[in-house]
Amino acid sequence: MHRILIVDDEPEVAKALRRVLVRQGFEVEVSPSGADGLRRLSELEPHAVISDFRMPGMSGAEFLSEVGRRAPGAVRFLLSGCTTGTSADPAARSADELGCGLIPKPWDAGELVGQLRRALGPCGGGGPRPPEMQRPS
Amino acid sequence: MPAAVGRIVDRRVDLTIVAGSIAIYCLMIWQAWGDWRAVGALVAIHFGHVLMVKLVHPWWERRPPGHFSELVMAGAHGLLCILAAHVSHWSLAGWLLVPFHVLAGNSHQDKESPGYVAIFLAVNAAVAWADGAPASHVVCFTALAAVLHSFWGARAGLLRQALAALQGERAKLEEAQRKMVEQEKMSSLGLLTAGIAHEINNPMAFVTSNIRELARDLAELPGRPDLVREYAEDVLPATLEGIQRVNSVVADLRRFSHGDPASPVEFDLNREVTAALRICEPQVRDRCRLEVFLGEPPRLRGQPQELARVVLNLVLNAAQATSGGAAVRVTTGEREGGATLVVSDQGSGMSPETLSHLFEPFFTTKAVGEGTGLGLAVAHGIVSRHGGRIQVESELGRGSTFTVWLPRAPAAGAA
């Protein structure tokens, strides 16, 4: 089962995202800030990290660049209100520079999960199992 | 204010002419003192002159201006002038009238009559000669008048040139200032809209996601009560549609404010026009007839989809102003080293008031729900970001023409 860390200062955005991902069989942790996310990084060992772009304090780009240093194996995504996936607005530029994926806000659940699955590949040798079977307690 | 300055100068010249003519007539009367018939005639002629300037001039100037009418007026003055000199028996003061008339007739900034002066001087010399005036007086005063005329003409020409140059510069400055004000307005609006769009977008992200999930879950829920079924089948899909509308307005706002530029590519304007027209053709078919004239615009560099959106917005706008199947004409071509796109309609046209707010976001003349007032603001933003400009000509009841100019793509090799 893939573990995903979501970092967003807006709790409702994080909760909505978690709801979508949990239903699809991911294990999801939520953190309200970049600093908190970094503290829990070693303990959680996430396969993927999704971070909002605009946050007070540490920005999403700073946070994900640090994640890239500390946990090079984790797949990283920037969450941003850009309207197309291939834009050159600040979020998209940062995503390009960091080598992260970009998740548009508002997202489409199907596309979001597809994007994550493609980036993560099959789970820990066992391969992806039907999502309904993986729902965590 | 060249026009106002011109009027002040004209007034002062008029005053000088009046003062000069009174002074000269006084001199003539002084010289003719004792010959009461001559004095009476001079007073009468001067009175006639004043009447002509005060009454006949204003009436005559209501006629369409032209070389001929000016010549008639100058001729009448000239004849009075020769008559006065004749009555004063060509005294020295009477001769003064000759150069004075030549100068006065040419003193206004917008008059020029070189042929007339020659005729006047010739007639005057002939009459003086016939009256038996001394030949030296005839020659000297005619020469003096001719010299003064050419000298004055040269100076007036220089002044006219300087004035025209100033007026040209002023027009350019006014245009530049108008553009600056426009840009300033647009950029502060851009910042404001970007902020609002961000604030709306964030909550809309989770609202959209949650409602979608809820709709999906309810649809799959077995054994639903009627109320829940109603929500699942009617209320939530309608709600999602509303959410979709809000999201697309927010997306438009972002496009207007800072754009959403993908890395620029080279593209062909005609292809984008064709694509955009294919999309909007079904929507406008009932209102108007599309006439498309694709020229040979140079290749452009930028975001082709965005330019297609400009075409789409302009055509939809034109169609909404049109009714009864009139033509909406879309033309592309080349001008000033760039591409042009012209969308013109024969629809309702716009008032100057509407024109002045045309590109501001949320400015709309359409009924609530029919237009957000973002179409032209978005078009303006896109065209500006491509380094181009967008211009409108419109007349109420006659239709509108939008002209977009875009710079050509830099030569291959330049990044």
Molecular structure report:
- The complex is a heterodimer of chains A (137) and B (415).
- Chain A is α/β, with parallel strands linked by helices.
- Chain A has helices at 11-23, 34-44, 60-70, 90-98, 109-120; strands at residues 3-7, 27-31, 48-52, 75-80, 101-104.
- A five-stranded parallel beta sheet of chain A has the order 2-1-3-4-5, with helices on both faces.
- In chain A, α4 (90-98) links the parallel β4 and β5.
- The longest helix of chain A has 13 residues, at 11-23.
- The radius of gyration of chain A is 14 Å and the shape is globular.
- By secondary structure, chain B is of the alpha+beta class.
- Chain B has eleven helices and seven strands.
- Chain B has helices spanning 2-31, 36-60, 67-87, 92-105, 114-131, 135-220, 226-257, 269-284, 304-321, 352-357, 375-385; strands at 265-267, 288-294, 300-302, 326-335, 338-345, 389-395, 399-407.
- In chain B, the strands form two sheets. In chain B, strands 2-4-5-7-6 form a five-stranded mixed beta sheet, covered by helices on one side. A two-stranded antiparallel sheet of chain B has the order 1-3.
- The longest helix of chain B is centred in the middle third of the chain and has 86 residues, at 135-220.
- The model of chain B has no long low-confidence stretch (mean pLDDT 84).
- Chains A and B meet through α1 of A and α6 and α7 of B.
